[in-house]
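Ticket #4471: complex job returned nothing on first submit. Input attached below:
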Amino acid sequence: MEAEGINTNRVGHEAAYEAHNAHTTDIPPNEVFPTLLSTLGEHRELTFFHYHLVDLPVILYDKEYGFDIYPNIEKMKEAGKYTLSTTHKIVKAQKPEETPTLDLSITSLVCFQWLAMIILLVAFFRAGRKYRKHPLKPPKGLQNLLETIFVFIRDDVVLPNIPSRKAAYKLLPYFVSLFVFILLMNLFGLIPGGHTATGALGTTAGLALTALFVINGTAIRQIGLKNWLKHLLGGAPWYLFFIMVPIEIISLFTKPFALTVRLFANMTAGHVILLSLVGLIFYLKSIVMAAVAVPFSIFMYALELLVAFLQAFIFTILTAVFTGLAIGEHGEHSSHHIH
Amino acid sequence: MEQDLAKLGAYLGSGIGAGISVIGAGLGIGKLASSALESSARQPEASGDIRTTMIIAAALIEGVALFSCVIAMLLALK
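Support reply: We reran it on our side without changes. The output follows.
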């Protein structure tokens, strides 16, 4: 009886897998790559390889229909307001060319972001408690790892770049959490079955938005609102304001924008290269290609590991450099800008 | 026909644009790396600082190249 139960269970899994395959093959062939790109790692269910783990809720907002929450995508189709297009986008059932105004669904990327947050909270609180309990004991294990990261960010990223020592120590927790958060999200993408949350524009844009507030908030606190507004003139005489102020305001926003695109593009590029290399085997339908594709993918994987660390470091150090520039320009010539 | 021509133009533009921007980024990062190597060979005690500065500058150059790649991708996915 039990064996039968297991058997039907497995048959159910295989049927689901085949249904999933059949589902993906009805995308028109010239749209396979764009579809794969636009949904890279973003799924509405948590799966481990082809084993289905849990459905994720679909939350939609539309000006016409208002808020709608469905437990999974099938329930959304049954309810009849929205449906899926051939390219797997959520569209309105009546008007297939219109998408809902806002898609606030909990996707797999959001889940992995939450996972990173939980891991960091647990790790840092555990290490912090150890310091409070035994302040004079040498650190070991996890505590040692976190201390290494902390000291690295403090001595190599924050202190050399932010001129005011007081502001640097105040911002240190922000930079440390920025670094470890991005690093952890990047590394999740390298685990089989994991997804890179930083490979989505929304995540990196959110991180860059915090950077925008930190850069300008620190500058305003350190040099005062009046000097900050004065720096919008870019050091030019006041009668040039109609040229300088728009340029300086644009340059305020290009820095976070560059941060957004850099992290997103770097994380996506690696995945696209791996996808193309492995895809060659299926495209040419020969097992000989595997001899070429697998070593290359392993090499790319190692490169991805380097890029995961490097991009987390670059995001952090560029935020620190921009913050330092926003503070340090006060009173000095500001002829060199980094964009 | 017109649709095909527009598609041809978009793919051609994205391919050529990505290629040209990669030439620029390659030249920039190559020049940067060669100067960084020369200067750290001349002054090995400053190599740590030089490396950090080099990585920042490389990231900025790479950022410009990635902008163009994103534009090319937008063209190709249009």
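Residues 2-77 of chain B form a domain with the F1FO ATP Synthase fold (CATH 1.20.20.10). Closing as resolved unless it happens again.
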